[in-house]
Amino acid sequence: MVVVGMAQLIVMLDATVVNVAIPSIGRDLSASEAALQWIISGYVLMYGSLLLLGGRFADVIGRRRAFAVGLVLFAAGSMWCGLATDAGVLVAGRIAQGAGAAVLSAAALSIVVTTYVAADQRRIALTAWSGLGVLGATLGVVVGGVLVELLGWRWVFLINVAFAAVALLAAYRAVDPMRTGPRRSLRFPTAISVSAGLAALTYAVIELRDGPGRPQVWIFLAVAIVVLGAVGTLESRSTDPLLPLRLLCIPAYLASSIGLLFASAVMISSSYLGSIYFQDVHSFGPLPAGLSLLPMGLASLAVALIIPKAIAVRGPVRVYSAGAAAQVVGAAALATGPENPAMVIVLLALIGAGLPSAFVPLYGIGSSHVAFADAGVGSGLLNTFNQTGGALGIAVVGTAMAAVVRTHHSGARPAATLDGVGAGFLAVAIAAAASLVVAAVLRRLTRTTGVRLAAEQA
What we know:
CATH class of the largest domain: Mainly Alpha
Shape: globular
Number of domains: 3
CATH topology of the largest domain: Growth Hormone, Chain: A
Radius of gyration: 21 Å
Structural class: mainly alpha
Largest sheet: none
CATH architecture of the largest domain: Up-down Bundle
Low-confidence stretches: 450-458
Number of strands: 0
């Protein structure tokens, strides 16, 4: 558990560690705002879209071997990022890093559920697994600030190589090979097509920053619709699909998936906008900016500890509704563009407190409606929605922020950025409000079907 937990920690840490480094990267590499969005989105997009392929890969070649391959790919991608000479090379490195993270995370989770088969052990192991993800996302903003302040932004990536080497050596001492059964097709073309379709959709959203009149916006949007539609049609007819789209025919599972997409968009986007606010509006250094974002992560961690008891008492849908409401209040207040950093820290902490109240119930509700035989692919598809939400969220808020900065202010940069950050948080507030709609749908579904979820499922 220590070995695979280390892997989960660094994978989730890298989803947030770059947020604090973004302004330094932009200055050093003369990167455009669109490139900076891709530095974040490229990682979570590849991570999310290839998770199911990573799980299939672990089934085909063995779990420990897939874990080792994922570590090597992740370390190589991190080295690539650390040595990048321009923004394009860095974006490509982040995409490679995300692909390695997908294989690594899927293999690690497969090792956990295979190793801990007793119900009590598995519950504790999965709780620890989820806690490490929250801890990694929390530590990311502080670790990023320390590394950028003391060593430079490149060490945000290069330090992963050391952690990966330690985890690789430990894996061959502590983890059994875990050979699998009959060979199955990897369905590699399907995985690449899904990634390409989601990348085209993300690109179309990012290009909207310069207005809807640009032809490439509609070209890439059309490509995304055609590619994803074709993949969905073919997968629905497959006898061994990589994407278990039949699960989306279950109303509660579909609602939970959409809810995870919105929750991830709120989480990643809030951290990104907070970093821009502290560094570009108030000229905080990387370390003070990271420390200013720490209360958001600590609030998430604190609430995560009491969520199981809250779900047992109030039920998962009510807890989810309360968390979504906290996100709406915090994001809506930030959309007004408060100039006081202390107030922004408090409001970001309010959003952070609402996040576990979304993630934990949604995973519980979604997985409870999946048959035992589909548990692996069911959790994998939920994770895919989760990570994809982060990528699309960054694309939307970055585009909203850039449009406001470009249109309304040509002079004072801090004032322009403050208005842009406010526009970004307005998009976050809309995503959080959509979560309230999902909560209402889930409340109706559970009331109509008479489903009562047990506390241990959460």
